[in-house]
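lol ok so funny story. i was supposed to be doing the assay writeup but got distracted and ended up predicting the structure for this chain instead. priorities right. anyway since i did it might as well share w the group, maybe its usefull for someone
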Amino acid sequence: MQQHHFGLKAMKTMQDKNPKKDTLTNSMAMFIIINTASIQLIPTTVIAIRSSLGSNNPTQIILPVWVATISAAIAGVTAAKILMKKH
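and the output, tada:
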């Protein structure tokens, strides 16, 4: 819950500095993209679920989670940069 508080505070700070209050800035859009990609260093919830269901190797999920979340972040940032240049 604490992370959400910091994210909201950061977005509010960016909005306070935004000259066009009804328009999302590039920085705000990038923040949302990176936050949504949610890079997981240690996916504890998934590991706990796999462990509780009797997985022989519950931490085996870590590498695929890293690949997926990092790929999502790269794809999102790349798409945003391309769209920002077009606008």
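DSSP finds four helices and no strands in the chain. Helices lie at 2-16, 26-37, 44-52, 62-86.
back to the writeup now i swear
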